Each structure stands twice: as C-alpha cells, then as structure tokens.
Amino acid sequence: MKGKTMRNRFKSPILLIAVFLIVYPAAALAKDNETETKKGCIKATINAIQMEIEAYGLRLKAAARGVGPAGNAEKFKKRISALKSELKEFRNIKPENYALSPEKGREGKLDIFDRLQEIGPIRPPEKKEISIFADRRCREGSILDVEEMTRSGPFYHVAGVVNDDYSRITPNNAYKLTIYLVYKRDYFGFIPDYYVYIERIQKTPSSGVRPASWRHSAEELCRVREPVSIFPGGQR
C-alpha cells in the first residue's frame, strides 16, 4: 500500500510536466504566429499608406494643371498631410500595441454603416476567407480577382503577403486566401475598396482558366472604373 502511494505521488508531477511540455510549445507557437501576423498587417498598412500618398500626389499634379473641380488641389494637399501623419504613426507601432481582434466587450459594436463610411486604417483589421483566380503575376498593388466581385466590389488591393513571398501566387491558378482588410480606400459611395494583407495561401484545383461563372475579371473592372491609372505599375 505504501509503495502504491509513493508511485501515485511521483505520477502527479510527471503528468504535470508532460502536459506542460505539450501545451507550452503549442501556446508559444500560436503566440509567435500571432506576432508575425501583426507585423505583416502593420507593414501592409504602411505600404497601403505609401501607395495612397503616391496616388494623391498624381492627383495633386493633375489638379495643379487645372484638371477637375476648383479646390481639388487644396483638398489633395490636406489628404496627403493626413496620410503622412498616419504613416508616421504606423512606422512607430509595435506588434504588442496592435490588436488583431476587438477589445473584450466591444465585439460587434461598430455599425456596418460606419464601417463603410470610414476611410483609412482599419482597427482591428478584418479577417476574411476568399477564393481568387490569378490571371497574372501578383505583386504589391495588384487587385485580387475575387469570385464574388462585381462592378460594385469588393475590391481588394494587395499591400502585403506572408513572408513577402508574392511568388506563391502564380498566373492561371486558383487559390483560397486568408486575408486581413487593413486599410479602407477613399472611393465613391459605399463600394467596398480595401488594401489587404494575405496571411494564408492555399492552392485549389483549377482548369487553368478563370471560371465562366465569375462575372468580371479584375482587369475588366479596372478599365471600367478608372481609364487613367493612378496606381503603381498600371494596376489601377
């Protein structure tokens, strides 16, 4: 009886150690993955702001030549100034101070109408699962060819990808992506138009041709929306 009691005493610490050795590495890995996602979202937001500054710089030059309504030049100058303030802020944000999910008790508090009206950084970023077909090489600024995309969106501009590896998305292939909406673009009406960070890439079966059921390609919609490109590399 005494020997059995001693064995039971030894079992408990061993069991606790075994549980710790299993649980701790998994928790540490999850923490590391979360930190990397935060870093990716922050970097993508910085890239998004820089692309917006470039786009508004081109608009400002056009306004200075007399293109568009009077007062546009001043409006664009103010927007560029605001963008530069955002850029400074995000260059100084540390991952531990960047939230990937709403604060406890604030889940679902943001009205969808407010979300559609807002432009600028999305805090916290919105996570989504989407299906795309890549009809060209993916790079910073590319518009993702999303399955449900119409002339009213949604439009997702790539501002970053996991490990900065754009080569994982190749032409004439279909993918399922996990993305984070990190920045709402300034576009008319309530059309959803965002910069995104691609966190996860999963290749899916494809014939190598964009499905006929997909009504529009990103390239077609770009031609309809903005004949004069204000986007790096002619992406938009």
Gap between N and C termini = 80 Å
Overall number of strands: 4
The ordered H/E elements are HHHEEEEH
State the domain count.
2
Low-pLDDT segments, ≥5 res: 24-29, 105-110, 223-236
Average pLDDT taken over every residue: 80
What is the spatial order of strands in the main beta sheet? Answer: 1-3-4-2
CATH fourth-tier homologous superfamily of the largest domain = NigD-like N-terminal OB domain
| Overall geometric form | globular
CATH fold-type name of the largest domain: OB fold (Dihydrolipoamide Acetyltransferase, E2P)
What helical percentage do the residues reach?
Answer: 40-55%
Write a brief structural summary:
It contains four helices and four strands. The longest helix has 63 residues.
Keywords:
single chain; 236 residues; alpha+beta; OB fold (Dihydrolipoamide Acetyltransferase, E2P); 2 domains; four-stranded mixed β-sheet; 41% helix; 19% strand; globular
Question: Please, could you describe this protein's structure?
Answer:
A 4-stranded mixed sheet has the order 1-3-4-2, covered by helices on one side. It has 2 domains: 2-90; 109-228, NigD-like N-terminal OB domain (OB fold (Dihydrolipoamide Acetyltransferase, E2P), Beta Barrel), CATH 2.40.50. The chain has helices at residues 2-64, 72-91, 112-117, 218-225, and strands spanning 120-134, 155-161, 173-184, 193-204. The protein is built from 4 helices and 4 strands, in the order H-H-H-E-E-E-E-H. It has 236 residues and is an alpha+beta fold.
